Amino acid sequence: MTNVSEIFGSKVFNDCLMKQRLPKDTYKAMQKTIKDGKRLDISVANIVANSMKDWAVENGATHFTHWFQPMTGITAEKHDSFISPLNDGNIIMEFSGKELVQGEPDASSFPSGGLRATFEARGYTAWDPTSYAFIKNNTLCIPTAFCSYGGEALDKKTPLLRSMEAINKQAVRVLKLFGNETITSVKTTVGPEQEYFLVDKEMFDKRPDLLFTGRTLYGAMPPKGQELEDHYFGTIKTKVSEFMGELNEELWKLGILAKTEHNEVAPAQHELAPIFSTTNIATDHNQLTMELMQRIAKKHGMVCLLHEKPFAGVNGSGKHNNWSISTNEGSNLLEPGDTPHENAQFLTFICAVIKAVDDYQDLLRISVASAGNDHRLGANEAPPAVVSIFLGEELSAILESIDKGMAYDAKEKTILKVGVHVLPRFAKDTTDRNRTSPFAFTGNKFEFRMLGSMASVSDPNVVLNTAVAESLKQFADELENAEDFNTALHTLIKRTISEHKRIIFNGNGYDDVWLKEAEKRGLLNLKTTPDCLPYMIKEKNIKLFTEHKVYTETEIKSRYEIMLENYSKIINIEALTMIDMANKDILPAVSAFVQKLSETVIAKKGAVSGVDCTYEEKLIEKVSALNGLMYTKTKALEDALTKVSDIETAQKTADYYRCTVFEAMNELRIIADQIETVTDRKAWPYPTYADLLFGVR
Ligand code: ADP
Ligand code: MG
Question: CB neighbours of 157 closer than 8 A, spacing ≥ 6?
Fold first, then answer.
């Protein structure tokens, strides 16, 4: 048995190690840097770097890297060794403060949306000391932010840190109004639940679509899918449980609090939930978790699919972003308190979130937009593309009574007054029942459920933090000038509920009736990535980000371009892969199958005159007709692609990929899947859905 407490964090240069290994004043300086974001003096950085290096070398590391998260959404690293030559031909292992604090990766091939003109292709990475350094593959990894020399953010981390600062600033203002003098900072916390599929590696390797695009572009449904729901929380197969065991151990070594794991609804689908941590750390940890999942799966002869929709007709994979705000004193601001005063504060923060989600529905939708996630949102398994909030009966009833000035509890007949009455605590089971809501209050946190499984959790949290910061800013502006705080607060809360209650919906989010109702309420329903992206550059959204110093206007526009381009590139690769598979594998394989059938007919007729060849002849007819149609659809897709180069803007290109190319892909697939169901198993060139979904034993 593994001794968890012994290995936990053993590959992390954490606080405990710093305390042990650093001189007292260096440790103090580090603490200041971590807590207050104070810049580290170079002489201090030298000492920290040296101590980190010693520890890393003792633990088998030979290299170091600045570990960062470019806008590709995955992590990047460039390794340098610690080796430094001496005059006598020997070497020493060295790592300087300068190398720790700042790096210069050759950044020219990372997406920048035009931010980094090629003549100044350099970007630099800067240490984020709030996220601990760690060892991975014999390399000391320094978590860093990645910026251009002009200071523009080129990564997913910089804006996240800025958004955390924005909400910190505004929340502390609001908390002061409630008389909290000892709270000096707040941090948002995140616990991302991660879904994924495991498939057999040998089968994976035989599927060009999985290899090139991460999802199956063809594939007929097997006779058994997920309808029996017998996989959900079912017994975990040996191979999978060995994988999970090793994954947990490696995650624990990295100080990642992997806690629960279980099978999901779809066959071959699983989930891992960590214990929550501060948002930037949770983001780093989620990236590492995804990376380790993929690496460790291979060791066990499997491939971990992180794509949002690896299999059509089978549930896709998402991430649930559990989000809350906590103070430097450790209290959770979304936890209802025991006194009327605490409850008033709780309601203020709840209202700030409600207002934020309503005002910035579009940005929240955009923050989870990708070609992959388009397959989920709005389909009958994931939240709809419409953003709404689930509050549960109790909290909804409380807000309604405030809104209408009615008694909350009919028996008591007292009208609930903010700051005067005590609210009940919300039992988790009364708040967590609705699994169809995109944004649900679950007792002491909100769970944003629209995230795709593959993307970094950074973007949605940037939006959440910033949008809530804006609500809190408006609240603070209003309340700071109030003559009577309690009256002003009551008015503010009442007004906020009344203005934003349209975003609250406690019913079934999968129901079509809701979509109609949502439209009546004026909520946005942005179905696809190209549909929602134009909202990113709306004036109100640019204003939000620039005012809170999270993005500059240039940064937003470059990100908009990158997202559009990325979408188009993905569909393009998928279309090319489909064409390739059709031309080189499926069409020839089916044709050969027909040839075999025809030869059988001839042989049979030569052997016995008047013999019955119904089966072969009917099949030849059917399969030939379908293969002809498949050829036509392949051609149509090829033709659709040739017209792309004539389109002028990135937005129009993305729209074209969505409306024309993607539709042509769907048409081709329908035919191919029909042929698969009537073709000899042995003649089909790829492992089937049944092989992939039930192949891990
Ligand atoms: P489940 O949703 O599976 O019933 P929980 O509600 O206990 O389980 O937790 C789900 C996720 O929410 C976990 O990753 C957990 O760490 C996270 N979580 C719990 N409290 C918070 C919080 N205050 N802030 C952010 N995430 C949290
Ligand atoms: Mg959950």
Answer: 68, 69, 128, 143, 144, 145, 146, 280, 283, 284, 458
pLDDT at residue 429 in the model: 55
The Cα–Cα gap between 429 and 66 comes to 43
Range 47-57 average pLDDT: 96
Does ligand 1 come within 6 angstroms of the Cβ of 278? Answer: no
3-class state of residue 550 by DSSP: coil
Question: In 64-128, which ranges are continuous DSSP H helix?
Answer: 97-101
Atom in ligand 1 nearest the alpha carbon of residue 335: 23
Whether residue 584 is predicted with pLDDT greater than 90 in this model: the reply is: yes
- Angstrom distance (rounded) from CA 446 to CA 440: 5
Residue 276 Cβ contacting ligand 1 at under 6 Å: yes
- 163-551 matches 567-693 in fold: no
Quick: pLDDT tens for 316-343.
999 999 999 999 999 999 998 887 777 8
Band (pLDDT 50/70/90 cuts) for residue 291 is very high
433 phi-psi bin (left φ>0, alpha ψ -120 to 50, beta other): alpha
What is the rounded CA–CA span in Å between residue 151 and residue 127?
14
* pLDDT number for residue 228: 58
Q: Which atom of ligand 1 is nearest to the CA of 320?
A: 11
Is the shortest distance between the CB of 274 and ligand 1 below 6 Å? yes
Dihedral sign, Cα of residue 536, residue 539, residue 542, residue 543: negative
Distance in Å, CA 191 to ligand 2 centroid: 9
Is the per-residue pLDDT at 695 higher than 50?
A: yes
Identify the residue whose tokens are 């149509």: 636
Any atom of ligand 1 within 6 Å of the Cβ of 446? no
Whose atoms come closest to the Cα of 261: which ligand?
1
Which residues are registered as beta bridge partners of 187? 326
Q: Is 323 in the pocket of ligand 1 (CB under 6 A)?
A: yes
| 345-383 pLDDT tens trace | 999 999 999 999 999 999 999 999 999 999 999 777 778
Domain ranges of the chain: 4-154, 163-551, 567-693
Cα–Cα distance measured from residue 604 to residue 667, given in angstroms and rounded to the nearest whole number: 37
> Is the shortest distance between the CB of 189 and ligand 1 below 6 Å?
yes
The secondary structure of residue 585, as a DSSP letter, is I
* pLDDT tops 50 at residue 72: yes
Centroid of ligand 1 to alpha carbon of 449 (angstroms): 12
* Two tokens, residue 359: 């005002």
474 by Cβ neighbours in 10 Å (0-12 / 13-18 / 19+) ranks as: middle
With 90 as the cut, is the pLDDT of residue 433 above it? no
Domain 4-154 has CATH 3.10.20.70: yes
More confident residue, 411 or 650: 650
Q: Is the pLDDT of residue 654 over 50?
A: yes
The Å distance, Cα 49 to ligand 2 centre, comes to 39
pTM across the whole model: 0.94
Topology annotation, domain 567-693: Four Helix Bundle (Hemerythrin (Met), subunit A) (1.20.120)
DSSP letters along 21-47, please?
A: HS-HHHHHHHHHHHHH-PPPPHHHHHH
Residue 436 near residue 509 (C-beta atoms within 8 A): yes
> What CATH class is the domain 163-551?
alpha beta
Instruction: Give yes or no for residue 233 CB within 6 A of ligand 1.
Output: no
